[in-house]
C-alpha cells in the first residue's frame, strides 16, 4: 500500500511529519527550531530533535531522539578533508600478506594430499612420504604464526598528503606508518613499545596496562598551513582526554624530532593524536 506523507509548518520555523499507513505503524515527526527574527540565536549549534510515534492497534508509544552535540575538534578536521580525494590502498606488498595463512594453507594441503596418496585414494603414492614430511611442520609453523600475528590497521590517505609524504614526512613518521600497515608477529598491539613508555604502564603516575589505548586506524592528511600530518586514532575506554593531553609533550618527544603533537577527542571512546611535521610545503 502507498505511504502517506504530510508536511506542516510548526512554530514559524518549519517541520516535517511523515506518517505511514496504519499497517506499518510508524510516524516520524521532525521539529526544527524557529529561524524568525523574534527568536534569539542560540550560542551553540544543536542537533534538531526527532520524534518517533510507534502506533499499534492497542497502544501508542512516543520516542524522542536527540543526536549528540557535534562540537568536537575532530569534526572540524573531518569537514576540512571531506571534499579531498582519497588514495585507494590497492598496492600489492609482501608485508600485507599473512605468512600464517600461507604456511597453514600449504601445510594442510600437503598433509591432506599426502594421506590420500598414502592410502591410494589419490594418485602419487610415491610422493606421499615427502608430502607428509614437509606438510606437518609447515602446518605447525602456520598455526603458530597465525596465533601470534597482529593484523595491520586501516590507513586512510588523502591525495595531497601522499604527495607530501616522501618530501616532508620525517623518517620516524614514515617508519611508524609502514610498521602499522603490515602484519607483525609476536607483538600484543601496534606501537606497544611507544605506548609503554608514554603512558608508563604500572608505574607511578602511569596507567594500568589493561587500560592501554589500542590503535584502531591511521590517517594521512595536510594541515591548513600545508604541513604533512599523520593521525593516530586510538580506542581507550578507560581513559579521558586529559590523560592524552598531559602526555602531549611525550608524544612529540618520542616520535620526534621535527614534529609537533596535538591531541583531540573523536567519536565515542576514540582519541586522535596528530603528529605534524614541522617542515611546511609553502
TrEMBL record:
The keyword Acetylation does not apply. The chain crosses the membrane at residues 99-121, 127-145. The keyword Ubl conjugation does not apply. InterPro entries: DUF2854. It comes from the Eukaryota. Keywords: Membrane, Transmembrane, Transmembrane helix. It holds the Pfam family DUF2854. Signal peptide: none annotated. This is Thylakoid membrane protein slr0575. The lineage of its organism: Eukaryota, Viridiplantae, Streptophyta, Embryophyta, Tracheophyta.
